[in-house]
Amino acid sequence: MKLDNKTLDILVKSQKNEILEYHVYINLAKSTKASENKAVLLRIAGEELGHYIFWKKFTGDNVKPNKIYVLFYTWVSKIFGITFGIKLMEKREEAAHKTYTKICKVIPEAVKIVDDEDEHEKMLISMINEERLKYVGSIVLGLNDALVELTGALAGFTFALQNTKVIAFMGLITGIAASFSMAASEYLSARTENSYKMALKSSAYTGCAYVLTVVILIMPFIILHNYYLALISTITLDFFIIYLFNFYISVAKDLDFMKRFAEMAIICLSVALVTFIISYAIKGISGIEI
């Protein structure tokens, strides 16, 4: 079949994409302990290789994968979870789908590849069984509460105390105490529906997410000397954490990123602002100077 240069370029790009995904799936299958997950990953890898060979019939090229991308998606999957890594990689297929639709008019056999790509996504969703996604609700609870409560507390401490070291000390005590309280509450809540082991894990995820967030948020008050600059830095970190977390969840669980990001950011900023105003009012009424 005689193809024009533009179509050949598209096929070569598709070929590169397929061989890239083949190598990533093979790498993940090698490092996956769960036999069911390994079997599905190998099956998908085989299909990706089949697609590569299919495109090769038209391009005649032995295309090699981009090794940097292979390493990137492999390690992202190992660090942040297979679900996140694969879905992040599969987002590349969204553009490819439009390309395949156009190519189908020239190469009717390409319809099967489009169908295979759609099946991959459904298969991945059903096959992945990762602990971190099971307990994402507990992580959200710890992260969200730490962001809202501690940012509000630090805003209040900033105006009331006006000393970065004291604010950091008070914030750390408040945060650690709150993390134990949240972890205990999550354990009691989860224990009513789950086993002792699952409830303990839920509380651990909640507590760890809370403590980690606390440490990050008080760092500006430890490093900086200007308490207002430290508060602004903390609020900036709030937005950064909210952005990263919601990006992760939106990719891993196919949720609306902007809606979740805006909701968490508005709540966090509103609580900080209200707490700051209340602290200002209380200090003015009481006349106490620290």
What does this structure look like?
This protein is an all-alpha fold and 290 residues long. The protein folds into two domains: 5-127, Ferritin (Up-down Bundle); 132-286, no CATH class. It contains twelve helices and no strands. The protein has helices at residues 5-31, 35-59, 67-80, 82-90, 92-106, 111-127, 131-134, 136-161, 164-191, 196-223, 227-253, 257-286. The longest helix has 30 residues, at 257-286. It is elongated. The termini are far apart.
Largest sheet: none
Tally of discrete structural domains:
2
Query: N-to-C terminal Cα separation, in Å?
Result: 83 Å
Helix run count: 12
- Give the mean pLDDT: 81
- Report the structural category: mainly alpha
How many strand segments? 0
Radius of gyration, rounded? 25 Å
Strand content: under 5%
Poorly predicted runs are none
Order of helices and strands: HHHHHHHHHHHH
Shape: elongated
Q: Which bin fits the share of residues in helices?
A: over 70%
